[in-house]
């Protein structure tokens, strides 16, 4: 079998699994003053500093959340100026798009959605136009797209936003731990991430909030004042320990994994293209994440392809919206037809992917796509 759905969730790294288990074995609320509580607190500090090291920020610039969905919601809520402008791209994850729609309504903001070209690259002229607005502005542009892997030049966009006096947030969920990122040199104001995309456990993530950023204290969750009041609730000690261990392992392996993953992804594409030359690879001519391949198989609906591939874990569009009947908003924004979008499968690789998995997947994909095309042609 082959697990090629890292963008939905990556396998937990052994270092992270051990850290979670070790932590679960010792009691302690990280807010308690007794020794047991302080042991838990030390584990939280370690996890937080491992994550901070990966991002090159300060540990106290991180607000631990339940994942990127919550981090995105919190970022937009605290940064969106009442009566201002919220700018997002058309290919954002629903955790930004849906949050932005709600917050724009709640806080009376104008919502500006920036389009992309056929390769999925942001239309910078539209960003420039939005930044020309006299309204106080928050821009949220993802670092790497979850469906295509297409990268945005977030450094450039952060600088443009800052020059125009706005606040820049990026949903970097698919980038963190896979490509280098240095918040000590890049002028990003806020950044969201989720541990399970880089080999940590599910249900934990973080929002980076740059020190001194002029945001409103509008937490989504109020209560005991944890996380300096930004996110109340007993800390998820095991989750944070696992996230930290995964961050440390990802950082140590980043260059090797990046290179290996890109080679395996290129091998998958070469094998599939050799046998199915009409396959379209979305975003292939622009900078992409090393481990993602979004393939359109003309004449082969993705649901039929995937149901013929039980031993190859891949996805149509994003896992979060699979099951929904609507074609991918990302591919539609890239100018694909609904039929093309519905004939697209996303393969995503990462730290534990092997050559054997790639060869197995390529062979399976080729034979199933051929069979589906024939069946469609006949019927
Ligand atoms: N943003 C992006 C780009 C994602 O890919 C995902 C996960 N599919 C999320 C946000 C949400 O992450 P989580 O479900 O862990 O909150």
How would you describe what is shown here?
The chain is of the alpha/beta class and about 375 residues long. It has two domains: about 1-10 and about 255-379, Aspartate Aminotransferase, domain 1; about 15-250, Type I PLP-dependent aspartate aminotransferase-like (Major domain) (Aspartate Aminotransferase, domain 2, 3-Layer(aba) Sandwich). Helices cover about 40% and strands about 15% of the residues. The protein contains eleven helices and twelve strands. The strands form three sheets. A seven-stranded mixed sheet has the order 2-8-7-6-5-3-4, sandwiched between helices. It has a three-stranded antiparallel sheet with strand order 9-10-12. Helix 4 links the parallel strand 3 and strand 4 (about 110-115). Helix 1 runs antiparallel to helix 7 and helix 3 packs parallel to helix 4. The protein is globular, with a radius of gyration of 21 Å. The structure holds 4'-deoxy-4'-aminopyridoxal-5'-phosphate (PMP). 4'-deoxy-4'-aminopyridoxal-5'-phosphate binds near residues 67, 95, 318 and 320. 4'-deoxy-4'-aminopyridoxal-5'-phosphate binds near residues 142 and 171. It is an enzyme of class 2 (transferase). InterPro entries: Aminotrans_V_dom, Aminotrans_V_PyrdxlP_BS, Cysteine_dSase, PyrdxlP-dep_Trfase, PyrdxlP-dep_Trfase_major, PyrdxlP-dep_Trfase_small.
């Amino acid at each position: 079998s082959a697990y090629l759905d890292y963008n939905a969730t990556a396998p937990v790294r052994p270092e992270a699994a051990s850290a979670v288990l070790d932590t679960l074995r010792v009691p302690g609320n990280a807010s308690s003053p007794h020794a047991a509580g302080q042991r838990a607190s030390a584990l939280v500090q370690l996890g937080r500093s491992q994550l901070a090291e990966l991002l090159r920020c300060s540990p106290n610039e991180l607000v631990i959340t339940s994942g990127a969905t919550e981090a995105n919601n919190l970022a937009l809520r605290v940064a969106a100026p009442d009566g201002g402008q919220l700018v997002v791209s058309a290919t954002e994850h629903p955790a930004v798009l849906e949050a932005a729609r709600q917050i724009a309504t709640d806080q009376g903001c104008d919502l500006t959605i920036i389009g992309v070209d056929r390769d999925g690259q942001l239309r910078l002229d539209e960003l420039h136009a939005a930044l020309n607005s006299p309204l106080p502005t928050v821009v949220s542009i993802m670092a790497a797209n979850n469906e295509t892997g297409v990268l945005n030049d977030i450094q450039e966009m952060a600088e443009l936003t800052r020059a125009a006096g706005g606040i820049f947030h990026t949903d970097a969920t698919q980038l963190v731990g896979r490509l280098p990122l240095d918040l000590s040199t890049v002028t990003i104001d806020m950044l969201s991430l989720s541990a399970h995309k880089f080999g940590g456990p599910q249900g934990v993530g973080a929002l980076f909030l740059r020190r001194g950023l002029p945001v409103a204290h509008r937490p989504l969750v109020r209560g005991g004042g944890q996380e300096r009041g930004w996110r109340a609730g007993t800390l998820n000690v095991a989750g944070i320990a696992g996230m930290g261990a995964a961050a440390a392992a990802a950082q140590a392996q980043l260059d090797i994994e990046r290179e290996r993953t890109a080679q395996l992804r290129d091998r998958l594409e070469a094998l599939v293209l050799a046998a199915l030359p009409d396959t379209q690879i979305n975003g292939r001519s622009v900078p992409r994440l090393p481990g993602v391949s979004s393939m359109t198989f003309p004449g082969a609906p993705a649901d039929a392809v995937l149901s013929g591939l039980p031993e190859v874990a891949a996805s149509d569009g994003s896992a979060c919206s699979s099951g929904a009947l609507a074609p991918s908003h990302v591919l539609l924004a890239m100018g694909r037809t609904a039929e093309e979008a519905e004939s697209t499968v996303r393969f995503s690789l990462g730290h534990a992917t092997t050559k054997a998995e790639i060869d197995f997947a390529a062979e399976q994909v080729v034979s199933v796509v051929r069979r589906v095309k024939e069946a469609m042609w006949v019927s």
